[in-house]
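Title: Prediction job returns without error message
Component: structure pipeline
Severity: low
Priority: P3
Assignee: unassigned

Description:
Job completed but the reporter wants confirmation the result is attached to the right record. Sequence as submitted:
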Amino acid sequence: MAEPLADNLSAFILAGGRSSRMGSDKAFLDFEGRTLLARALALARSVSPEVQIVGDAAKFASFAPVVEDIFRGCGPLGGIHAALHASETELNLILAVDMPFLSFALLQFLMTRARNTDHALATVPYTNAGWQPLCAVYRKEFAVPAESALSCARCKIDPLFEEVSVRAIDEDELAEAGFSPRIFCNLNTPDDVSCAAKPKSGKQGSDS
């Protein structure tokens, strides 16, 4: 495993979803010999020693420090807000627990882009499927517009990207760096798990 790249960076794993379509808690789903949570923790720790789980402390406190939502029942935006509110660093990597194909190389790529774009509150991949806000780097200040939206019961993440400065990384830029959009595939249902296969192209980095 490569040495962590942390320099004013924290990593947070969003694991607070209800997993209703999966039928059981996705965080503890075994995928290719490891739980999704174990895979996400290992990947996050490859880039930062400051790793926390956003979710239920009763379920996750034995695995890593836990941050619980301030705005409960508000989906991923509530988790991002809680992470940034708790963070002590400027840059914050947010990862969904159910994205098993993410790689060290991709995270390194995202963090480099974020560090080189001082004005952007978020550095977010954008593929033909849309924004990928749960594999992205957020500056701590993003908590301010997130809280304003949540206070008004606006729980969608994507609309906030029209209100703040965002460094979008489109599919062409990803492809030039060697990454397939399939790397952002997430597992929501048992069928997703059955059909899942590692991307045939795209950098896998040092986390394999």
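Comment from assignee: result matches the submitted record. The chain has one domain: 9-195.
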